[in-house]
Amino acid sequence: MVDFIITKVLPYFDVVLENVKVTRLGQGHINQTFLVRWPAGQLVLQQINTDVFPRPAAMLNNAYKISRHLIAKSEANAYRLQVVAPERTQAGELFLDLGEQGFWRAINYLPFSHTVEVVNSVVEAEIAAKAFGHFAVSLSDLSAESIDDVIPQFHHLPGRIDQLVAAVAQSHPQRLQGCQQWVDLALGQTELLQQLKQVEAQLPLRICHNDTKINNMLFDKRDMSSLAIIDLDTCMKGYLMYDFGDMVRTFCSPEAEDSTALDQVHVREPIFAAICQGYLSELGASLSPLERQSLWLGAKVMCLMIGIRFLTDHLNGDVYFPVNHQGHNLERAANQFTLYQSLLEQQDHLSTYLK
Which domains, and CATH codes, for the chain? Predict the structure, then answer.
């Protein structure tokens, strides 16, 4: 792959090929990401997964609109984070389409950037939540209608449940074996579905990040302050409760999302409190009362929904999320459902942080 990138992809970009080095970057599930360095420069190169993003040009146009908006805010001293922006090809395009050899794009690399995979402290949680809140409020004056839906119904729990039902019906018995308890849990959430339908109908559409994992916020390794929000690929119209919920899902457990130590998977109250403090300190004044109330619902829905997506992929034969071994997606699903159960057990107490 590295030789292919150097000989077939990089010549289309403003890269000096002499002494160039290409290394893999990050631990993303979907796209393949590489860091390209040469003596006088560096950039991040990605091969876009067009099975997941069937309209990659629309996705990159979204990212371009958002980055331009944030750059303008930054120049007006109204946005304090750095901005990840596209690096155009030599022909001035936002992407390179090589057909069967891949759909490629480049973005600027931010020096001193550092990612965290598991939140280790309330300080990390609050810094990241504050950054995601600042990102969201800074996009509040960019029309949500100006952004395309590159993955329609991405955060749509009823649709994800329908996909699970179909997967159960078509699954090989060996795949279904060992996960019936999780299927029953997922399909038994009718009350949550009814509540979600009622609340969503009253919420304003906003531009949301839609993938607010801790590793999509870059820390500055020099002082561990917030540096930038990255991975704008899933930025679409949506509801802020899902961005909040994905932070809860990915920040609050002391275990990685594929950990099989289920007895250690739980919502850490101090981390949850730090998320609320950081996020609301940026967005609190701009949230409607119902939006603020919806955040707790978003936390529950995201843990459940990602568990359903992992479980569905397991039953379908691991066709969406890359796996490292047999049963990997089932392990991820069990992890997320366990986190969901922890939220329910602490609901009366944790929800008070959002009052």
Answer: 2-109 (3.30.200.20), 122-354 (3.90.1200.10)
